[in-house]
């Protein structure tokens, strides 16, 4: 059985436990999994917690529910199909901040054992205060600790946020491709999801956006803070200003997604979309996962709406206090800023290597741009894609693939693959890309030709 991570929150522990059961079931489908009540008693958690874990696995296509019979492992659930939909993944460059996080957490645990650190009371408060200080830039653009709200992850945060603003079931407009956890949360809340119209260059079509805001009862606009996909380009200050002016004419909440701006290779830009928006209608969403890694999946949102504090208090998320306080120390001592500079340089180096090998192995089959941030490359195939072939080809390699269409509520990005390199060995990367090239060759029926390893040195 797999082991839960210390400080992990409840439904993730159940999720990991079920993952281990699914792995044991390989080759023996259909395999019935324990019932909600059985798992609730066995793991000493609530029925709602078990249901959340099963729902996540069901969303990922790893299990399916048979009415009056229970949950069953879906055929091939433990293999490559999961690789096609799950994420994010642990990237080696994350290890720097994760080590610092664990060091602080062990130190705090020793203090608590001596009775000198009441972390249960101050962990979340310190983290909210540290975040407010970090995002405050001037007497005009400032935040207070009581305007910062924490959640176990992005999906939970979005669900509480929509309830607090009385937007469940309303119309929301998103920049596409949209962060997968955000899009999943919107779908779970029954939102009507529209997508920001795009120009031929892949940026927001501002004129079409203005018409859409005038024609549709949009309650919220979700936009990236600075990094637009799939090109991976920084949003221009002109576009930021224009979107800000548009929102000034419409009573629409802006949820600015700050989930990946920390990973812009040149550092977060000085101008953000939030700088041009009425702060009364502004919400800023972030997460520690992009910067610190999977051991810190906590998400946060900043907003001045009076109902947010009550909504998050009612959910009463049980967040690991030691880890929250360790994160507060990382922020307060400037360690995150110092390590992020190293992380950005490492990610840029990895992505440059990744891009070079992609051009050598798949140059005639795909088009892509070297992004200005992040660890994912978006490839556009010149021919129709069959995801099953791609997933099977990459099974067991250091490449993780997500179909572009998974990040869209409409029929967009079907020709895209989002690839993440989670290894460190260039030779292993070359081998994975050769497999991907062969899969694309089978699909389009055109020979790729032989490429030797000398091209990669």
UniProtKB/TrEMBL annotation:
Concerning PROSITE patterns, the annotation shows: HTH_GNTR
Write down the PANTHER family for this protein, in alphabetical order. Answer: HTH-TYPE TRANSCRIPTIONAL REGULATORY PROTEIN GABR, TRANSCRIPTIONAL REGULATORY PROTEIN
Which family would the database say this protein is a member of? In the C-terminal section; belongs to the class-I pyridoxal-phosphate-dependent aminotransferase family.
Q: Does the keyword Cell division apply?
A: no
Keywords of this protein's UniProt record, alphabetized? Answer: DNA-binding, Pyridoxal phosphate, Transcription, Transcription regulation
CDD domains in alphabetical order? WHTH_GntR
InterPro entries per the record?
A: HTH_trans_reg/aminotransferase, PyrdxlP-dep_Trfase, PyrdxlP-dep_Trfase_major, PyrdxlP-dep_Trfase_small, Tscrpt_reg_HTH_GntR, WH-like_DNA-bd_sf, WH_DNA-bd_sf
- Ranges for domain HTH gntR-type come to 8-76
- What's the superkingdom here? Bacteria
Checking Pfam families in the record gives: GntR
Q: What is this protein called?
A: GntR family transcriptional regulator
């Amino acid at each position: 059985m797999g082991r839960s991570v210390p400080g992990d929150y409840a439904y993730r522990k159940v999720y990991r436990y079920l993952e281990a059961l699914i792995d044991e079931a390989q080759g023996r489908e259909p395999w019935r999994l324990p019932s909600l009540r059985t798992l609730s008693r066995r793991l000493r958690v609530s029925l709602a917690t078990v249901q959340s874990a099963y729902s996540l696995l069901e969303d990922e296509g790893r299990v399916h529910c048979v009415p009056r019979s229970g949950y069953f492992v879906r055929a091939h659930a433990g293999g490559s199909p999961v690789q096609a939909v799950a994420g994010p993944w642990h990237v080696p460059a994350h290890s720097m901040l994760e080590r610092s996080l664990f060091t602080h957490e062990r130190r705090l645990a020793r203090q608590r054992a001596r009775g000198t650190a009441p972390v249960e009371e101050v962990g979340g408060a310190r983290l909210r205060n540290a975040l407010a200080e970090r995002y405050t830039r001037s007497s005009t653009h400032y935040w207070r600790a009581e305007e910062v709200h924490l959640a176990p992850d992005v999906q939970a945060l979005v669900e509480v946020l929509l309830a607090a603003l009385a937007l469940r079931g309303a119309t929301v407009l998103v920049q596409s491709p949209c962060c997968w956890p955000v899009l999943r949360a919107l779908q779970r809340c029954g939102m009507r999801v529209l997508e920001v119209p795009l120009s031929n260059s892949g940026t927001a079509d501002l004129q079409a956006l203005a018409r859409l805001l005038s024609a549709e009862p949009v309650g919220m606009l979700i936009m990236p803070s600075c990094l637009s996909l799939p090109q991976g380009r920084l949003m221009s200050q002109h576009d930021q200003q224009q979107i800000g002016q548009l929102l000034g004419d419409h009573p629409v909440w802006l949820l600015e997604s700050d989930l990946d701006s920390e990973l812009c290779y040149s550092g977060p830009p000085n101008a953000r979309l939030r700088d041009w928006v009425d702060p009364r209608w502004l919400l800023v969403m972030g997460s520690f996962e992009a910067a610190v890694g999977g051991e810190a999946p906590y998400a946060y949102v900043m907003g001045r709406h009076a109902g947010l504090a009550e909504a998050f208090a009612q959910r009463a998320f049980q967040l690991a206090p030691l880890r929250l306080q360790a994160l507060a120390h990382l922020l307060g001592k400037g360690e995150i800023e110092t390590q992020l500079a190293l992380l950005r340089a490492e990610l840029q180096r990895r992505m440059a290597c990744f891009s070079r090998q992609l051009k050598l192995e798949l140059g005639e089959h795909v088009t892509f741009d070297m992004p200005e941030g992040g660890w994912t490359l978006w490839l556009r195939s010149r021919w129709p894609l069959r995801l099953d072939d791609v997933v099977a080809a990459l099974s067991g390699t250091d490449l993780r693939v997500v179909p572009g269409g998974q990040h869209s509520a409409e029929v967009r990005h079907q020709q895209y693959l989002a690839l993440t390199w989670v290894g460190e060995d260039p030779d292993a990367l070359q081998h994975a890309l050769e497999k991907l090239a062969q899969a694309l060759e089978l699909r389009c029926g055109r020979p790729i030709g032989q490429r030797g390893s000398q091209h990669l040195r």
